[in-house]
Design goal:
88% of the residues lie in helices and 0% in strands. By secondary structure, it is mainly alpha-helical. It has one domain: Chorismate mutase (Chorismate Mutase Domain, subunit A, Up-down Bundle). Helix 1 crosses helix 3 and helix 2 runs antiparallel to helix 3.
Length: 103
């Protein structure tokens, strides 16, 4: 019976896998921009975390998700994690650049 389930689910799993690859590609593109912003912020001595922008991005994503029928709370939580990680990356970039300048 397990084999029957696997056969039945196979095309859906393939579609999900393809979508996951697209999501990862988009995240990579997003992080490319984050890295650019991190270098700019470090160069201009701008803090990695700008709370107004954090709130704006998170709430914008929640609103967009809700408009597309997604759970607003889930999207807000997902973006909170994404933003936290992005800010940490920007901070790491700033620290790396400071270390290089000091050397």
């Amino acid at each position: 019976m397990t084999q029957d389930f696997a056969s039945l689910l196979k095309p859906y799993r393939a579609r999900i896998d393809a979508l996951d690859e697209q999501i990862i590609d988009l995240l990579r593109l997003r992080y490319d921009v984050i890295e650019e912003v991190g270098r700019l912020k470090a160069r201009e001595n701008i803090p990695a975390t700008l709370q107004d922008r954090v709130d704006e991005v998170r709430e914008n994503a929640a609103r967009l998700g809700a408009a597309k029928g997604l759970d607003e709370s889930f999207i807000r939580d997902l973006y909170a994690r994404l933003i936290t990680h992005s800010c940490a990356l920007e901070e790491a970039i700033a620290q790396d650049l400071k270390t290089r300048k000091a050397s």
